[in-house]
Amino acid sequence: MTYKADFRIWRGDTDGGELRDFKVEVNEGEVVLDIIHRLQATQAPDLAVRWNCKAGKCGSCSAEINGRPRLLCMTRMSTFAPDEVVTVTPMRTFPVIRDLVTDVSFNYAKARQVPSFTPPEGLKPGEYRMQQVDVERSQEFRKCIECFLCQNTCHVIRDFEDNKAAFSGPRFLMRIAELDMHPLDVADRQKAAQEEHGLGLCNITKCCTDVCPEHIHITDNALIPMKERVADRKYDPLVWLGNKIRRRGSGD
Amino acid sequence: MSEVERHSYDVVVIGAGGAGLRAAIEARTRGLRTAVVCKSLFGKAHTVMAEGGIAASMGNVNSQDGWKVHFRDTMRGGKFLNHWRMAELHAKEAPDRVWELESWGALFDRTADGRISQRNFGGHEYPRLAHVGDRTGLELIRTLQQRIVALQQEDEREFGDPEARLKVFQECTVTRLLTVPDAGSEAGNRIAGAFGYWRESGRFTVFDAPAVVLATGGIGKGFKVTSNSWEYTGDGQALALLAGAPLINMEFVQFHPTGMVWPPSVKGILVTESVRGDGGVLLNSEGKRFMFRYIPDVFKEKYAQTPAEGDRWYTDQENNRRPPELLPRDEVARAINSEVKAGRGSPHGGVFLTVVGRMAGGTEEIRRKLPSMYHQFKELADVDITAEAMEVGPTCHYVMGGIAVDPDTAATPGVLGLYAAGEVAGGMHGSNRLGGNSLSDLLVFGRRAGEHAARYAEEIGEARREAAQEQLDAAEAEALAPFAVESAENPYTVHQELQQTMNDLVGIIRREGEMTEALTRLDELKARAAKAGVEGHRQYNPGWHLALDLRNMLLVCECVARSALERQESRGGHTRDDFPAMSAEWRRVVLACSIVDPDAETLSVRLTRGEAVPMRADLLELFERDELTKYLTDAELPGKDG
């Protein structure tokens, strides 16, 4: 079944831009990215869009379709009525570079602030022993394809630019949870999650989980357990006492 | 020429997939200032699409496995055309490369006793592939990415600058390697750096460096039906050719047997071999497991003759032989092609692949073992693989050929200071790559390339020189040419016609007449590509980027077509309808491609014949003489020359 669809695509750059209307052919089984590619090949050769795998595995083609954060390659045209206008805009939380391409360097900066995996001292490669049931929790988070749709949708930074410095966003709070739940990671992750990455700013509205194309339970399995671990420690009388003694001992 | 941005490094790695990142980690760990330059965002490289696993003979599931068995399987899979030294190094070093990933945070699936689990795959005698469900490539790329971040954190602590010794230049495309004259190399020059442009701004940038590692992956975007992403435009192969380093074995292109065939927009997207490794079977329209009719003589003794024996093998490998669905990929792809041709295909021109009722744990086990496949079919094709069969057919997946390299150092013989690793390099996989051997190849030879590029950069020390200004001017003029063209061709149209040509005329089954026709069409396309013009300006302009990529695709496609026309036999990823037999004489022939005159207005490819290096005696001894007679000439067989 072939038909002509109405598309509205945001075109512009750092100086501003506007929605432009296109009429474009759609064939059976196609996804929004196919339509963008057809526009490039026939009507707008310089229409900027990021994409790589076109199979939902690399997380490059993130954008907003009719206002909803989605991967262009995993959004099938059959989810729209043939007479429905399909509006495609760049991710709103990040600065626009051109058309559908945004500057996502915020995410790479945040990634660099999370201390890396820290194995026990003396454990040699090849000697690692872990049970499947124990690695599965972190494995769920490692399914993340870094499309940054969760970062884009999280209202803590979507609506409040000022929070960007203090808040790492769901992707990187989940990365901290992943390391915290890694059976062999020995670093202390909980204090930093709260104090340096803004875990407390998250008020578990689950928007991140809703938009995750990998269906990772970011809120339920990463953020809430992380909050619980932080809370347990904060209010655990033994931990409290230990901290007091240590602090006194070190002279602060 | 206007003032151009310049960066000075010891080692520049082009490409940020598994091989490039591993090379960069190695060079930086040795203390050298290293740059990674990549076309996409950091962490998006094509490696993320690898699904099944990393082949390494750790012996965690079957303790009889070891490097010798892995080496044998690799040589058999490649029909003995592999450079045996690369296959040897690969088999020996792969386990260490996997264990190292674990120490950098990778979380592989586990065995019951807590070690890394290993799964069955086509052509591998024992369960050998370390894996994470069916998203192993993502785990590999993320682990290497996070390792790079860890090294940057170290530099932050030591120098106050995370990028002091290792920096990633993302969304930056290299269009030319820079060289200076040097009498010590075959092409008479050595590396001085690389020239490229920022995709975001369109501005040019120069990297001054004595050593460059090419790790740019494959060429699949020259074909219409492919599992490859947009980046796979043969950049590294073309850069090497233009700098004076030859390509070998370019006729060997792997068509993965199982790509999606429906709907049309997803045609070619990969369906992992793990589907078969975990019990999936191939059926034709009559519901028959047809693979039993396609076991070639060289593999007769290794594969089950009946479905019952094949099924028993999954639980008892000691007393049964593996099912023929797990033959090497070239065999399975040809079999599917034959079934479809014989009119026994599926409705959309493929065959059926099903896991329904094939796993003891039922629906739940399918979803646990093949989560991405479940997701992919559900979302893109409305097919529930726990209840229905998939439709699959061959898709262009991998190029075995590539830049000629020294097996131990990954150095190109053509140009001093130029190294290549991963899919862009040739030799390791012979005429056909086994599934799972790619990820291990990336790590083993990525590390070696990084090591030797670093050593070379250290040795050259003060003798390093910058490229002459004329080279930079020429590179800039070449890159800007599409803006100056009048009566412009549409680069997208030229690309589509190139893909159609390669698909139709130099595809899975090849004939002399068709390949000659392909070469004529490639010449025409070359002329049209030279006239490909672009609209708009230089800032993030995909039309311009494609116009520049066309040069590379056309060059490598010509190499494929010329080599394929020349090789008059069928072997692995090169099947000639007019020469269906495998020839021991041809096994010794290595076809090499170079460029006649890299400064010419129109670039053309020259083909030369070389001879394969004879296999070391102790490695020959790993095979039965009977098996060797299937591949080698009488003169090559052990014990003949006394």
Folded structure, characterized:
The complex is a heterodimer of chains A (252) and B (642). Chain A is an alpha+beta fold and 252 residues long. Chain A has 10 helices and 7 strands. In chain A, the strands form 2 sheets. Chain A has a 5-stranded mixed beta sheet with strand order 2-1-5-3-4. A two-stranded antiparallel ribbon of chain A has the order 6-7. In chain A, a hairpin with a 2-residue loop joins strand 3 and strand 4 (68-71). In chain A, helix 3 (132-142) runs antiparallel to helix 6 and helix 6 (169-181) packs across helix 9 (218-235). Chain B is an alpha/beta fold. Chain B has 18 helices and 20 strands. In chain B, the strands form 5 sheets. Chain B has a 5-stranded parallel beta sheet with strand order 7-3-2-11-18, with helices on both faces. The mean pLDDT of chain B is 95. Classes of the chains: A alpha+beta (252), B alpha/beta (642). At the A-B interface, helix 1 and helix 3 of A face helix 3, helix 4, helix 10, helix 13 and helix 15 of B.
CATH architecture of the domain at 5-135 and 160-253 and 398-470 in chain B: 3-Layer(bba) Sandwich
Sheet of most strands of chain A: 5 strands, mixed
Distance between the termini of chain A: 73 Å
Query: So how many helices of chain A?
Result: 10
Structural class computed from helices and strand pairing of chain A: alpha+beta
- Gyration radius of chain B, in Å: 24 Å
Q: What is the terminal separation of chain B in angstroms?
A: 65 Å
Keywords (chain A): 2Fe-2S, 4Fe-4S, Iron, Iron-sulfur, Metal-binding, Oxidoreductase
Protein name (chain A): Succinate dehydrogenase/fumarate reductase iron-sulfur subunit
GO molecular function (chain A): 2 iron, 2 sulfur cluster binding; 4 iron, 4 sulfur cluster binding; electron transfer activity; metal ion binding; oxidoreductase activity
InterPro entries (chain A): 2Fe-2S_ferredoxin-like_sf (IPR036010), 2Fe-2S_ferredoxin-type (IPR001041), 2Fe2S_fd_BS (IPR006058), 4Fe4S_Fe-S-bd (IPR017896), Beta-grasp_dom_sf (IPR012675), Helical_ferredxn (IPR009051), SDH/FRD_Iron-Sulfur (IPR050573), Succ_DH/fum_Rdtase_Fe-S (IPR004489)
